[in-house]
Amino acid sequence: MNPGTTRRTVLATAAALGAAVALPVSLSAGTAHAAVGDAAALRGRWHTLLTGGPGLDLADARIAAAVARIGRAAATAAKGLDPAATDGLFPDLTSTTLSNHVTTSFKRLATIATAWAVPGTPQYGDTALRDLLLGGIDWMLAHRYGPGHTRFDNDWDWEIGSALALNDATVLLYDTLGAERLTRITTAVRHYTPDPNLWRADRQIATGANRVWISTVVAVNAVLLDDGDALARVRDALSDVEGSGANSVLAFNDAGAAAQGTGEGFYSDGSFLQHYKHPYTGGYGKELLNNLSRLLNLLAGTAWTVTDPDLDNVRVWVDEGFDPLLARGDVLASVCGREIARPSKQGHASAQTVIEAVLRLIPGFPGETAERFTALVKQWIAEDTYRDFLAVTDLASLVAARQVIASPVPARGPLVAHKQHPRMDKAAHHRPSFALGISAYSTRIYNYESIQNENLHGWHLSDGMVLLHTDDLGHYSEDYWPTVDPARLPGTTVIAGRPANAAGQRTTSTADWTGGTALPGTTLGAYGMELRAYGSSLRGLKSWFCLDDVIACVGSGITADAGTAETVVENRKLRDPAAALLVNGAAAPTGAGWSAQLDRVSWLHVAGTGGYVFPQPVTLRGLREDRTATWREINLKYGTDTPVTRPYLTLWQDHGTAPADAGYFWLQAPAASAERTRLWSVAPPVRLVARSTAVHAVRRCADGLLAANFWAAGSAQELKADGPASVLVRPDGKAVTVSLSDPTQLRSTVSVELAVRGLTVTSADPGVRAAPVRDGIRITADTAGRYGATLNLTLKRS
Question: Which of 192, 280, 284, 648 is labelled catalytic?
């Protein structure tokens, strides 16, 4: 590679080499990449990723709109830019104690440089702007970033955030920099991020998303330096460089967690953890996928192409990890960590990153996978009618997306599935008209993340939070997280009251029982958690039996030494502030400020949300309120002080002060009409079989399906278990399917007995066996090392 190449040469080389040098995302599936071995070609690839590449049709309305967005973003970013200033390059970014001021300064420079490099923007090729950008880089190197400066605050900003942005600006301005300035830039980046296998002064090995971020920094810096050895280290850093399985980004972390000691990365069940025990698919996970897709594009067809066979695992990341956690353009908040407290991450922004990453992956996975990813992307883009992906994405992704949309591969269609992620204590239930996410935690998983003064009200995010996604696609956007009552999140069982801000807090539970069973190929699942609340004596057992369009919610053993315990039936930000609430068919008042005790409730219906059936009538509390808050209340780092107000309807069951063995039971019918809800209150589709501290069980009336969560050894009609287990028994004609798991993830075997005679085995998963007993059949499953996964057995009646 030859570093002495101008920007004009980069573009000329790109044009000459065509698709091989252009961002591979724009290639059709199966296209081979030509070998590329010089710096100009690789810079051309990165330049194309940032600008969309040469030859954009500016007469195309979509392209023109994207170019205009780039110009507007640059105009905003350039406000106040002053290389002659003494306190800061930008007047609002002058801190020498907050490291994000350094990263944000570099991001603004990269945003301006992008507009300067994209034909059609008002800033394109402007010499005065070029000089301003060069002066800005010089100011940052002289006053904030490089070997002569001591880092402060968050290491991420120095080693990753600032370096990524500075690298991008350098590629965009390459032919104007000069050798001396280029040396200062690359030296500064290498000072903080010298090698993909090392991180921080203590030489800690970076893992998960951090490792891919760092690899991306080193790779682009290596291209700028014409350093093939560094690119080789980047390629190897994505794999198992030490032979232990502990450091590979691409390998599943199932076995690596024990050796690595952090548990960070993807698991074969689709789970993703970062910061040791935090579910983070929608945060660090999406950034890992995003940056990996960029790296794969940069290195494809070169001497540094990633050939690790574990690269094939990325298919599972997408299919089992991301797809079940997307709900019509929104990512389930339970896997987004502290990012839910950032105003910039609402409005389906996280899903945009996922879509862009999968678009880049399509050319690298030809054949059936490319078609499946194409079908996924088409579906994801089409079903998000809240946020038009084509109107917000970058130029390169816009070009690729339109190629995908124009392809003959049909969209996948709405996801209809029940998916559990045992390695991160989360479940998702998808039906054609709704999606529902359940958030729990255990001894294995933290309850929430609150660091860097972010997510200050995250106390109950894993106390059984149930987030319902309907056709109100903006429900969890438009200021939901600062305005929702954080002490009454839907589905949770809590002690009433508002704890102190949660800064720096995180904890695991002292309970092992969290998880469930999912019947393969259906939308049938049993899920549950033993709740041992953080910061109080509250204890309880909570189950959700997801049976197609009905979720049976069961609670027992709700006990506390002090305080008033509540279980929240619903807490909805209302699309229509006057949305009707029917209580046993009668309309409740619609004005803000309404509050009432609702006695002998057998059914409720919330317009635009769905129905709730209480087969055993209960007393509930109802509240309508306009809630006003600021983002700064939940995020001191990125929040603003501007007040926002949103209307809410909250419904909850009060278990009383210092309750002993309280409980609940209701059927949630998302998206159901008022009439269907009324009919189900007369003839419930699911009935309660058991609700004790030993077992929760329900039966579906239509086919006799039995779903049970055993907290200890016990029985539920014809089903008996020898200890903790989650079990589904589904009759279907002469066939009976039994699915079971060990939600504690501690048992070596689980044994259940089914008191039904004349059953014989037709198929069984490995490790599952059956033997006749006096009254029926005993099923024993080897659950050691299964980490809560479901095991299945099919029987037939004689």
Answer: 284
